[in-house]
Amino acid sequence: MISKILFIRRDNIGDLVCTTPAIHAVRQAYPQAKIGILVNSYNAEAIRNNPDIDEIYIYEKAKHVPEKNKFSVWFNNTKILMKIRKEKYDVAIACGSYSPRLARYTYLTGAKLKIGYLPKNVEKSFFYNMPLKEPQKPMHEVERVFTLLLPLGINEKPDKMRVYPSSYEIERVNELLKKERFFGVIETPQNDRKIAFHISSRKPENRWTTEKFISLARLILKNHNANIMLLWSPGSENNPYHPGDDEKAELISKAVPEIIPCRTVRLGELIAALSFADLVVCLDGGAMHIAAALGKPIVTIWGSTDPERWRPWGVKNVLIQGINKKADDVDVEPVYEAIVRFVKEITQ
């Protein structure tokens, strides 16, 4: 009998959001089971308030907390693993492509059944007693994670992704947007459309220039009765540990005074801010997957990432990829045209 199931997701925000359909499917199939999840401090907010999860275990990656001593980080992570081992989970699921570190974490949970992917040419694993081969055919990350549920007898199609903004964060962002006169948060006029720009992406080849975001914002404001909220990864671009886009956001805000800057320091604030939008324009990254999990239509300016595996899941979306798999090769006009089509749909 399976009474305790643990998911392990060590990756970035988007990867974790892509795991939520599998978590929901397990909750539906095993309604009485305890479902836990091991995540890192960087992505944990993406699954806060998720009713499918009973317990969240949060460990730290040393690179995310450079101010801490590495020994202290390792010691605290060992305590987290010991807590998990005391729970005596029946199943541990290693979510994501094979990596030696992910396999070790799964093994150290002490779960009876340890499920995870193996590399193509490997037949057995010391760490997994229920290994699966990496899928050979192209699959979305949502589907790849879902395939790991086969040993649990779950074989249907994945449902939508899910994130749940907290009421506290919604109230805080609502007050900020009212203060900045982001029309439509209170008493939305019929023809007012709220468009969110998220201008950040982790990989350089997935980024769009400041000038193009400025041109796009001016086109929208000139031709449509819309409001634009500006979102970005907080911090300076010169921060070696957590580079952000504060400088880029400031340039856009000064060039387009009508745009509403919304600096979200915590991931929970970003989730709440995106929940206010009617349409999201973004680059490939965690914010895109959050927007999809919130059910928002999305226009994505795409770079080098594999779109078949990482495009928005389960929502209306337009993906515009650069000729040389660089986002900066995408012109403003096709992005604007895609926005116009969505605006017409929203208005009807």
UniProtKB/TrEMBL annotation:
It catalyses: an L-alpha-D-Hep-(1->3)-4-O-phospho-L-alpha-D-Hep-(1->5)-[alpha-Kdo-(2->4)]-alpha-Kdo-(2->6)-lipid A + ADP-L-glycero-beta-D-manno-heptose = an L-alpha-D-Hep-(1->7)-L-alpha-D-Hep-(1->3)-4-O-phospho-L-alpha-D-Hep-(1->5)-[alpha-Kdo-(2->4)]-alpha-Kdo-(2->6)-lipid A + ADP + H(+); L-alpha-D-Hep-(1->3)-4-O-phospho-L-alpha-D-Hep-(1->5)-[alpha-Kdo-(2->4)]-alpha-Kdo-(2->6)-lipid A (E. coli) + ADP-L-glycero-beta-D-manno-heptose = L-alpha-D-Hep-(1->7)-L-alpha-D-Hep-(1->3)-4-O-phospho-L-alpha-D-Hep-(1->5)-[alpha-Kdo-(2->4)]-alpha-Kdo-(2->6)-lipid A (E. coli) + ADP + H(+). One of its GO terms (biological process) is lipopolysaccharide core region biosynthetic process. It is an enzyme of class 2 (transferase). One of its GO terms (cellular component) is cytosol. GO terms for molecular function: ADP-heptose-lipopolysaccharide heptosyltransferase activity. InterPro entries: Glyco_trans_9, LPS_LOS_Heptosyltrfase. The keyword rRNA-binding does not apply. Its EC number is 2.4.99.25. Keywords: Glycosyltransferase, Lipopolysaccharide biosynthesis, Transferase. This is Lipopolysaccharide heptosyltransferase 3. It comes from Thermodesulfovibrio yellowstonii. The lineage of its organism: Bacteria, Pseudomonadati, Nitrospirota, Thermodesulfovibrionia, Thermodesulfovibrionales.
